[in-house]
Amino acid sequence: MQSMTGYGSSRGAAGEAVYSVEVKSVNHRFCEVSIRLPGKIALLEQDIIERVKRRFQRGKIDLYIKEEIVSRERSAFEALKRSYRLLKRFQKELHLNGPIQVADLVAFYGQTSSFSSGGGEETARLRVPLGRVVDEALGRLRKMRKREGEHLRKWFSAKLLVLRRSLSAIEKEAGFNQHRHRMKVAQRLKDITTLPDEKIAEGAAIAANRADVTEEIVRLESHLAQFQSALRSSGVKGRRLDFLMQEMGREINTLGSKVVGPKLIHRVIDFKTELERIKEQVQNVE
């Protein structure tokens, strides 16, 4: 299980620059990715969004990439290394012999810098090394989301136990209440009517059946079992848990409309209160 809340960061070299990456995520119904990055690597934005969406299916994810100060010496050194590799390639393709001297290298660099590669080529060159830095930050975000998710899973399991106990108490109390309600209705009918005993018993049974909550309790037990099963399953489960929360809310409302007696009503309110707490946390599950 993964939470949708998390944070990750990384730092690494790509080309002549060093980039720092920060990524954080919070709850969201879908996977919404927002990226801020330097203009020189703007063409990589879509590639980075796809990297994020391959790893996460839900959450509002903000990713920031910052280019740190690049030393001129390092930049010049990297440029000369590229020029040297290019010269060697020319030598091979044109079948030229002889060593490459420093003067040749500097002259070649001076020529090529005037028609240096365009933004597209520069972007393509940065794609792999910068992608590694981004992946490292995303990996740390995922680890934090998993840690949060495991904490939530344990919390949900404890709360399910509370709900099961609460539902058991409601079931027991409802059984007593139904019997008491039946006797009360029968007594009232005897006091105000002259109906035969069979008719009074029939009327009391009908009134008692209206207060029967067996169906709602069975459904709630089933939903609790499904919720527990979902906690143990792998993959994305936030929407499934949210659906089960909605169904349990519907059942407990129906049950609450049937029960009589302050003690039972109080137990139903307690159940609904716990349910709302769980529902709030379910919104944070991917």
Tell me the layout of helices and strands.
Layout: E1 6-14, E2 17-26, E3 31-36, H1 45-55, E4 59-67, H2 72-94, H3 102-113, H4 119-192, H5 197-210, H6 214-232, H7 238-258, H8 262-282
Parallel strand pairs: 3-4
Antiparallel strand pairs: 1-2, 2-4
Can you describe this structure?
With 286 residues, the chain is α+β, with helices and mostly antiparallel strands. Helices cover 68% and strands 12% of the residues. The chain contains 8 helices and 4 strands; from the N terminus they run βββαβααααααα. It has a 4-stranded mixed β-sheet, with helices on one face. Helix 2 (72-94) crosses helix 3 and helix 7 runs antiparallel to helix 8 (262-282). The longest helix has 74 residues, at 119-192. The termini are close together. The mean pLDDT is 87.
Identify the quaternary structure here. Answer: single chain
Indicate the mean pLDDT: 87
Strand content: 5-15%
Q: Counting H and I runs of at least 4 residues, what is the number of helices? A: 8
Rg (CA only): 34 Å
Side by side, the strands of the main sheet go 1-2-4-3
Total DSSP E strands: 4
What is the end-to-end distance?
Answer: 7 Å
Class by helix and strand content? alpha+beta
| Poorly predicted regions | none
Order of helices and strands: EEEHEHHHHHHH
In which range does the helix fraction lie?
55-70%
